């Protein structure tokens, strides 16, 4: 007889056998989905599409038309999730047990990445690392206030915006050209995919376990990845010590969930210049670093099928040679116009800016909670 107090907190018998059989695969796919596709698990309060059996009838999710109505947005959210899963997981995607395991894995992966990003804040933002400790009063630093574009600092009317100045070139908000301050977004993605040491000056790969980028077989910058990087950038600059699983910052009251749904539509459409620059920031690392992996990221190799690589086939990541931003030419995917495949180094003339029309998301606002250390709550 086992005393109640000695029983494991997580009762394996309550988890369906098919989930236990695929637990490792589900967790790996969830962590990838949380960076490459969506920051939060799909919320479909209007249609309850997430509880519908696969397949969900939805319009193409790779165009801006998905944001036309609440109905199409929710259906496309689920269709996009299904596209990231192999068939044997699509069949159980509508179960509560799958929702719980997938959501928890997304939060765990996000927490791990945010924890490591703390060591790169000085390189990304050009400010002392001490400014980004959990208890530091960041709104007392004029540079951070300027980056965030906070209004009425220290008053009851203090207000943050998802389209904060740091996302724009020279910190001048121009909604025709969002995300043009591409370098910090590229650095955040680079650290998340290739490890925190990949941002170190003169870093050369010396072997080690696989990084997220290689485990997930990442070959392109996606709108979801850009939105993820922008939202994480806002969080790191904010007052919040933990990233909220519910989507609302405990201290700042920033609605990260709503913000992510606002930013992602802005990263779709004709993105030649933007994606070329972000791709270049990620590709302009030593070829040896791309061929092997970060020595501090992950100790296991959870190889899974890659049904969600957004876009057509791409040049080998290990073939990407060091290059400057303006010496990289993007390769637009014929299958998904919102995706730009990581290019090889090809000398080209400097390009001009492309106006990006940012459709407004109509997604719902409800969510769940989780825990973490200036990482995930």
Tell me briefly what this model is.
The chain is mostly helical.
Write out the strand line-up for the largest beta sheet, numbering strands in chain order.
1-3-2
Structural class: mainly alpha
Separate helix tally: 13
Residues in helix, %: 25-40%
Outline type: globular
Mean pLDDT: 74
Order of helices and strands: HHHHHHHHHEHHHHEE
Q: How is the biggest beta sheet arranged?
A: 3 strands, antiparallel
What does this structure look like?
This protein has 377 residues and is mostly helical. 35% of the residues lie in helices and 2% in strands. It contains 13 helices and three strands, in the order αααααααααβααααββ. It has helices spanning 17-21, 23-36, 70-83, 87-90, 96-117, 121-125, 142-148, 182-194, 212-215, 223-237, 256-266, 272-283, 287-291; strands at 220-221, 331-332, 340-341. The chain has a three-stranded antiparallel β-sheet. Strand 2 and strand 3 (340-341) form a beta hairpin. The radius of gyration is 20 Å and the shape is globular. It starts with 16 loop residues before the first helix and ends in a 36-residue tail after the last strand.
């Amino acid at each position: 007889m086992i005393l109640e107090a000695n029983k494991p907190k997580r009762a394996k018998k309550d988890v369906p056998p098919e989930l236990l059989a695929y637990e490792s695969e589900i967790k790996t796919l969830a962590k990838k989905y949380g960076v490459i596709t969506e920051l939060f698990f799909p919320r479909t309060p209007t249609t309850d599409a997430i509880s519908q059996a696969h397949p969900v009838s939805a319009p193409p999710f790779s165009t801006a038309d998905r944001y036309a109505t609440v109905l199409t947005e929710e259906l496309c959210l689920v269709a996009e999730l299904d596209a990231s899963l192999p068939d044997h997981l699509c069949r159980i995607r509508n179960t509560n047990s799958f929702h719980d395991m997938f959501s928890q894995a997304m939060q765990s992966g996000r927490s791990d990445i945010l924890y490591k990003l703390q060591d790169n804040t000085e390189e990304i933002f050009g400010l002392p690392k001490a400014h980004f400790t959990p208890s530091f009063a960041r709104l007392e630093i004029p540079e951070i206030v300027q980056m965030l574009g906070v209004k009425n600092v220290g008053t009851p009317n203090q207000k943050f915006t998802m389209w904060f100045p740091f996302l724009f070139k020279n910190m001048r908000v121009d909604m025709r050209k969002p995300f043009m301050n591409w370098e910090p977004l590229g650095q955040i993605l680079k650290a998340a995919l290739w490890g925190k040491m990949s941002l170190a000056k003169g870093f050369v790969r010396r072997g080690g376990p696989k990084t997220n980028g290689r485990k997930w077989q990442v070959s392109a910058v996606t709108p979801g990845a850009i939105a993820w990087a922008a939202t994480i950038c806002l969080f790191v600059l904010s007052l919040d010590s933990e990233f909220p699983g519910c989507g609302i910052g405990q201290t700042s009251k920033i609605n990260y969930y709503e913000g992510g749904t606002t930013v992602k539509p802005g990263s779709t459409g004709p993105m030649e210049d933007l994606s070329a620059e972000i791709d270049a920031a990620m590709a302009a690392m030593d070829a040896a670093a791309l061929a092997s992996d970060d020595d501090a990221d992950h100790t296991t190799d959870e190889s899974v099928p890659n049904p969600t690589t957004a876009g057509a086939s791409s040049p080998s990541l290990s073939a990407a040679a060091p290059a400057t931003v303006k010496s990289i030419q993007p390769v637009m995917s014929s299958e998904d116009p919102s995706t730009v495949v990581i290019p090889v180094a090809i000398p080209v003339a400097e390009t001009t800016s492309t106006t990006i029309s940012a459709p407004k998301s109509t997604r719902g606002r409800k969510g769940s909670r989780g825990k973490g250390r200036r990482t995930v709550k």
